[in-house]
Amino acid sequence: MKAFVGVTDRDWFEFLKARPDLDEVNFWQPSGGRAFRAISPGEPFLFKLHYPANAIVGGGTFLYKTDFPASIAWEAFQEKNGAPTYAEMRRRIERYRRVSGRPTEDYTVGCLILRDPFFLPEDDWVSPPPDWRPNIVQGKTYNLDSEIGRDLWAQVLARREMAWAREHPLPEKEVPPMYGDPVQVRSRLGQGAFRLLVTDTYQRRCAITREKALPVLEAAHIRPVSEGGLHEVANGLLFRSDVHTLFDRGYVTVTPKYEFRVSRRLKDEFDNGEHYYALEGQELWLPGRPDERPSPEQLEWHADTMFLG
Q1: Three-class SS of residue 278?
Q2: Out of 98-107, 127-136, 175-184, least confident range
Q3: Number of C-alpha atoms within 13 angstroms, CB side, residue 23?
């Protein structure tokens, strides 16, 4: 079991700390193209502020690393990128890139997606481990079975527990939540992680039209969250935006055998739809891994409940 201590700036930290109950955040990198193999999905990712603050101030559970245009990262996570606006996010990215981008330039950023983030009050900040060096720019991995790693993890958990207890006064007989030995967990996805993971799973092309222009591709829930659906890849499809809209409104569906169907009501109501009727009966493009393919049960629900027939 490992943990990664990633270096971040105070603006990112303070902005997110002021927003309680976040389910996910994007720990973005100003440039894409760098692999991240420091830890595995489900392992802890801790936040350390730049000097002069020089302290570990929170963390989360690492889910996924990918690269996307900055505009897509903003659309997926918005304020969970640690900035109030897209313009402010671009300003911070360009400060680290040391270049001013053209207003229309949609440069690629790295996206380290973290689940269940926590942010410590300043009185509970943790000093970096004794082997931390000032010239570390990106971060450092610690084995939590080592002496330094165990001590770091114990301090973080103790400070987190104290902060939680102060914010949640309890009756005398009620036991506060306990955090023990580190265990690798499989965290559920948030909305932003769902969008990027579904996009990558479908190799960044529409499962029906094969469109590859990222700005018009959207991750669709087969069963909406409002109807009990989850942010899971098996409950997702990547569609071009117009197909997504028609899918959500029941004018098109995908059968449990992965065939595209178009409702007759599309023509009845709008006297149009030839482009979509040409796709009738087409087989869905499927991810290679069976566990990433659309759930037949969820597709059946959509065809039975949402499809207009």
Answers
A1: coil
A2: 175-184
A3: 10
Compute CA distances 48 → 38, 102, 120, 136, 220, whole Å.
16, 31, 11, 11, 35
User: Per the structure block, which two tokens stand in for 19?
Assistant: 């927003």
Give φ, ψ of 255 to 5 degrees: -75, 165
CA distances to 265, 301, 307 from 272, rounded to whole Å, are 10, 27, 18
pTM, to two decimals: 0.87
Kindly give, in sequence order, each residue whose CB lies less than 8 Å from that of residue 269, ignoring residues fewer than 6 positions away: none
- 145, two tokens: 């079975």
Question: In which band, very low, low, confident or very high, does the pLDDT at 56 lie, cut at 50, 70 and 90?
Answer: very high
Span 143-160, pLDDT tens digits: 999 999 999 999 999 998
Collapsed DSSP state (helix, strand, coil) of residue 88: helix
Contacts of residue 139, defined as CB under 8 A and 6 or more positions apart, other chains included, come to 4, 5, 6, 7, 38, 48
